[in-house]
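Lab notebook, bench 4. Still working through the backlog of constructs that have no structural model yet. Next entry is a single chain of 136 residues. Request: give me the structure tokens for it.
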Amino acid sequence: MGRNRMRMMTEAELKEILCDFHTTKTRVGILKSCLDIRYDEDTLEKYDKWSFQVEIIMDAMAILSEVENFVIDTHLVCHHTWVETTKLFSEKYGNNNGKSERTLKRIQRKALRDMLKFISSLPVEIYFNDMQMFVK
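Model written out:
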């Protein structure tokens, strides 16, 4: 009972991470290049933390179904609106398999819950405790 339990990541925080995911992956690449040129302790610390966070998010996305991954990637990571996401979904999977915006939102909610469950099942949430480090 006396254990200090860490706060779980929220759905809103995970959405924020996913919305900034391309930028963060780009930052990791730039930091890697900086380290290749000149070793710097602060740069190494940021590189290690950000690259591990990227790896965790990629692994969490890998547990999703193809459809869930498509919705998360299209709407949150690539910043398409729900109208655009619905259209792109129909183009990819065919009009017969088209889903309503409401259904795609439900798919996204389930995918986010599954990702949060995956992340919280591992001793990695400490790497997301300082959300500012990830986003900035």
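Notes after review: Residues 41-62 form the longest helix (22 residues). Confidence is low (pLDDT under 50) at residues 132-136. Flag for follow-up if needed.
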